[in-house]
Amino acid sequence: MGKIVKEYLIITLGVLLVVFGTYFFKFPNNFSIGGVTGLAVLLTSLTGGAISSSTIVTILNIALLIIGFLILGKDFGAKTAYGSLLLSAALAVLERIYPMDQPFTSQPILELAYAVALPAVGSAILFNLDASTGGTDIIAMILKKFTNTNTGQALLYSDLLLTVAAFFVFDMATGLLSLLGLVLKSLVVDNVIESLNLCKYFTVICEDPHPICEYITRDLKRSATVIDGKGAFTDKDKQVILTVMSRYQAILLRRFIRQTQPSAFILITNTSEIIGKGFRGA
After folding, report:
1. Residue 24 contacts residue 114 (beta carbons within 8 Å)
2. Is residue 31 included in any domain, yes or no?
């Protein structure tokens, strides 16, 4: 129960980062960087502002949620539904308590940086927990179930189409900034996801693995695998220890090995895709 509560608190934080970046920086500057929020920016302009971007996001998200539940049924994720409803509700609340008639600053590049960074970090947090804010992610889930379409490419093309539309709906500057934002968004999301999951993979070649393994299991609360090996140059029997841990634990382990077995050969590699007990998917 506590794990579920913690997950939803983190999801809430991720959604709020998306909300702040979208409402305070994307909407006022008319940045169309794909997705439901990008479509909302375009539709608000095409309707002459008669319907606000926040309202359009709410309508689209609710419609997609209904379609998702009807088509996907049990396959539809509760986390996605929660993220979608929270996004819509938070945007609607901000629209009432803090109307944004114009951008915070007169620096579009600065505004674009926050319009990209905040939602990108928020989305990365959500993706890391297999959650999302709904929208085009629901369309991707439907496409994945019924077609062989490459959903990643399909969503990229749809985002690109919405971004290109900014050139015609707004002006050249807004279109160019939106296109730059789309490129930056994909780069930032990938890098943040990798950073969130980054761990250290150790390959330790030594003669006596027992003190090292004891330190790993007793002090660091991790596990390890020991494999028999043989030195190619010396032809002596060796032991190879394989283990994965956090960055902070890696510093402690490296220090311990250097102090207790200075002759050990250590290879440390960055890794962000670890599935198993104590890590993702467990």
Report:
1. yes
2. yes
Whole-angstrom Cα distance, residue 282 to residue 275?
7
Q: Domain range holding 245?
A: 198-271
Tokens of 187: 């780069």
Residue 77 identity: G
Cα–Cα separations (whole angstroms), residue 191 to 125, 169, 185, 221: 12, 31, 10, 28
Strands 199-206 and 265-271: antiparallel
The reported pTM is: 0.76
Q: Which of 196, 215, 234 is the last residue of a domain?
A: 196
Q: Two tokens at 52?
A: 């606000």
d(CA 82, CA 85): 5
Residue type, 249: Q
User: pLDDT tens for residues 70-82?
Assistant: 887 766 678 888 9
Enter the tokens of residue 11.
């999801």
Number of domains in the chain: 2
> Of 88, 85, 94, whose CA–CA distance to 58 is shortest?
88
Same domain, 179 and 166: yes
* Torsion angle defined by CA atoms of residues 61, 62, 64 and 65, in that order, rounded to the nearest 10 degrees: 110
